[in-house]
Amino acid sequence: MCRYYIKLKLGNYISGLNSNEMAIKKLLATVLYTSVLILITACGNGGKSNDPDNRPESNDFRGQLIYVQTCAACHQADGKGIAGIFPPLSKSDFIAKGKETAIEQVIRGKSGVFEVNGLKYNNVMPPQSLDDEDIAAVLTYVFTGFGNNGPRVSADEVKKVRSKLK
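Above: the chain's sequence. Below: its structure in token form.
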């Protein structure tokens, strides 16, 4: 209920801007929406559950939030990327390569020419400053969303890959 109220208020605010401010409108909407997500998550213990079972629903929300904050600017909110510039995560043959490759790329970043779904990309993905739990959450979100049917990623798996990279 609260989320819909916030969207309604945000929509009303944005619609009040004149039509010449389209670029500003999009930027403002992204900043405000992200701020609202951060606020909601901060009030909810960062998406972490106090339950020892660490309910998947909480981690899925956390992964989505991290994706919006960290990945969506390039890979887009729908995970489809921008052809020839930022590769897709949606139905991606790169994601199909497995967890270890994806974990390593998030930790180390990537630059140079590489191919995803038959298209070549030559761009830079900087290393991400995320802890093991955050990487596990965002990669679980990517592996299980966007039309992908991949596995969940655990913080222990991220920790193992990180230790190999040192």
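Residues 28 and 151 are 35 Å apart (CA to CA).
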